[in-house]
Amino acid sequence: MGKTLTYKILEKHLVDGQLKAGSPIGIRIDQTLTQDATGTTAFLLFESMGTPRVKTDLSVSYVDHNMSQFGPENHNDHLYLQTVSTKAGAHHSRAGNGICHQVHLERFGKPGATLLGSDSHTPTGGGIGMIAIGAGGMDVAVAMGGGAFYLTCPKVIGVELTGKLNKWVASKDVILKLLSILTTKGNVGCVVEYFGDGVETLSVPQRATITNMGAELGVTTSIFPSDEKTRKFLEAQNRENDLDLLSADIDAEYDRVIEIDLSKLEPMAACPSSPDNIRPITELEDLKIGQVIVGSCTNSSYMDLMMIAEVLKGRQTYEMIEFAIAPGSKQVLNMLAKNGALADIIAAGARILESGCGPCIGQGFSPASDLVTLRTFNRNFAGRTGTSGDQAYLVSPETAVASAIMGQVTDPRRLTEMMGIKYPKIEIPKKFLIDDSMIVKPLNVDEARKAEVIRASTIVVPESPKPLADNLNAKVLLKCDDKITTDHIMPAGAFLKYRSNVPEYAKVVFNCFNEEGKPTFAQRALELKANNIGGIVVAGLSYGQGSSREHAALCPMYLGVKAVIAKSIERIHKANLINFAITPIEFADEKDYDGINQDDQLRIENLADSVKSSDKVTIKNITSDFEFEGRLVLSDRDRDILLAAGLLNYTKNRS
Ligand code: MIC
Ligand code: SF4
After folding, report:
1. Which residues are bridge partners to 569 per DSSP?
2. Residue of 378, 394, 549 with the most ligand 2 atoms within 8 Å of its CB, for mutation
3. Could you tell me the fold of the domain covering 268-412?
4. How many Å apart are CA 526 and CA 509, to the nearest integer?
5. Could you report how far apart the first and last alpha carbons of the chain are, in Å?
6. How does pLDDT run across 346-365, given as a tens digit for each residue?
7. Is domain 5-264 annotated with CATH 3.40.120.10?
């Protein structure tokens, strides 16, 4: 039987376990990336491990999330990251150089290599043929120290692309189509691998849009083969030496195959408030809009922005909307500035945002209440824009620009007939503008020895988790529904500046469920903690969707949360819970979810013993006097980490 590309790369990096779908494996990590919102914790944990230098081929610390700098906290983080990373032998991409995934694709991504990033959209690198996986900062810290990354050996879903995209239909529509098929739930433990004749019709940036938003499927990663299109991209980045032509065997067997005929796709949107709430644009066409933003790591490439500039040239965006662009990197922005495209965009009435995550993570540009906002981003979870009750639609740059001109949702295919606008076909340039001056090189060992790390008082070393209780007496702090995202658990936006200060950030855990005039989740949790009673969160399906932010485990751990009991838990979040010694438990019978209420008192007998050697735990609901079973879906290593009181202790004990 032929091999998938996924298994070929995993095989080369396997250091522990067997390549058998479903079994735990450890792989060697060639490259890591961190960003500032997760990187401060990652580097604080890396420092606590006592390893002086990174042991990967390449580690890059990026600053792209916290750029608004209200108060000193963000700049303190930037200085800490620049000094700690270069001292540790990593590169540091400074604020202004661009979004980690865009810059990594441009300057560092390598076909056939493995990349672990403390950001859930790390799979963007799959667009260039690498196995690029998102994880919590603690896992990335371990990988920087040369440790293996552990994951469940994936099933591989093959997506066969045939045909060619029609004019005005974008690669964003490919991933929106796939989200309509696979949804955001139930894909844990799978990799999506693209193959078929249609692949060669897509450029690397188009592929990267698809693999980037593959994160929303909840899969481990997504990958494209590397081919002549990859060569063209790498040559244009002066990196042809990084090329390795790779593809699946012709007779590779996939666990499931989905066929997508690119020529049959149409422009689509993810409607509020989930990336899998997909509808064709034709059904949304009368919808009035108030804001359009082109940017984020999904759609802010040179090709995307050039298309926007060509369409807007000599035209105006509709006067009742705000239109903004955030180019993905300094390379993109600089090229647009040099060739005059930026002037065309400015003249059309656009607001120009710096190269960073910006509004995608709620750093400004919150829309007015009740206004529809159209964004080329990858996530539209409720409230992520910073406006409660927001109506965010995720679309392609083509749909965004057509709608920005018309002031209402518009099928871009109608631009030609309505306004005589020809579809601008943008090719990859022969050479991108290469200027790595914003990437600070690692210090050599001698320089590093003498270098000082700048560490302001706003940077607080996180508390260590406590050992698991033998018998856990706890109270249900919150009962929530299906699809609770890490944005619900740990809001970002205006609170991002507290990422390097857990006691401060923990005050807003589950902020969206707090009610005016009533004690907050954090206050209730801390009261229990003071009385030595554990906290429990009860949830439905797909708990912890979305980002890799380990603060969604770290802050609840600080507040005394000891276990999450859910119908199912997403991969990255589950690993983060384990890394911070919060026991993830799944309902053996989903119906038992109905028998628990907030404030119920629960008792888990023999918790530590069960984690040691059993697949189940018995949970007693003392309040309503019933007993139910929870499943412990854990690898041996997960058990050891929980019993060692978290990954940091586990790693220290083994070194
Ligand atoms: C996101 O898109 O939600 C983020 C912000 O990039 C997160 C990381 C974080 O919360 O810092 C992610 O995707 O992992
Ligand atoms: Fe940044 Fe948004 Fe991409 Fe997350 S999804 S890395 S916040 S641009």
Report:
1. 543
2. 378
3. Aconitase; domain 3 (3.30.499)
4. 12
5. 40
6. 999 999 999 999 999 999 99
7. no
